[in-house]
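Archive record:
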Amino acid sequence: MKKLACLGLSLTMTLGLLSACGGGAETTPTPAPAESTAPVESSAPEKTYSGKVMMYSSMQEDQLMAIKEGFEKKYPGITMEYYFAGTSKVVTKISTEAQAGHVDADVIWVGDAATYVSFKESDILQKYSSPEAANLDPAYVDADGYYTAARLVGVGIAYNTVNVTPEEAPKTWDDLLDPKWNDQIVMSDPGTAGTTKYWMNAIMCSDKYGVDYMQKLHDNGCYLESGTTATHNQLAASAYKVGVCLDYVTANLVAEGSPIAFLYPEDTVSIASPIGLVKDCNNEENGKLLYDYILSKEGQEILVANNLVSVREDVEQAVDLTAIPSMLESDFAKLASDSDANLDAFNKIFGLS
């Protein structure tokens, strides 16, 4: 890690004293004093940090707490605060504050990557080129410099291991349409959960699945829970047998001993969840420090230790990415432009509007 303090320079001074000749008489030379080897210490102080930084995020709170602990240890004197809620609530808070004239967050980190397009268009974000971006695939960095992917989230299929064996667990999205799962499927409401909204949007924008897939999923008795945590907890509690779930949230529950398992299906939807720096934020310099820390190797290793997938290639992953049979190809521009229309169509299918 780069040190943020200046180190003192050691200087060695050599003093020589020569004797003089006087009158006409010969004198005995005076011995020169011993050479001094004592270093002179620099008085340059170490850099200090102070103040706070505020992040609005839809991440799981355990992961936010882990980042907070690591960041505050690296930068003693700065307090990291956060507002934690589902993506829709975070976006609503940001929109309300923006309309009032000022967003109180310094850094934004939500699950639906397409949301950042509207943030940029609404002049909520400012450009920032993190020095840590040099360690990332350029595809993870917004071409205009307004946001950078900071974690990868896999949306796949989870199942309750008490009621479903690995052999009979659905292996594809189409497997969820099998009548044997009728009234036994759960997913988060995409109107509240950003990662599920991204999955819904990717499926509905796909020529392979489209709006018809969501209609068939509804007709096979798919239930909606209000948020990501509720979806996974209810599945682990045997209220449902299978569900559209997230890899890292499932892994957290597995680590706690819950009877739930996750698999990456064909056409896994991978979400590059970005961070962005708020324009005219209250704590810009501290916001940049947090932004950089999240993207740093240390910050990414904290995420991996908490069951997330890193965006850095120099970080050892905890997830076996070779277990993903295939990724669903998506046109990000189309996802951004069709997001609201697809959510409206989904809500009509599921009777939410």
Remarks:
- The chain has a mean pLDDT of 88.
- The first strand starts at residue 51 and ends at 57.
- The two ends are 52 Å apart (CA to CA).
- DSSP finds ten helices and ten strands in the chain.
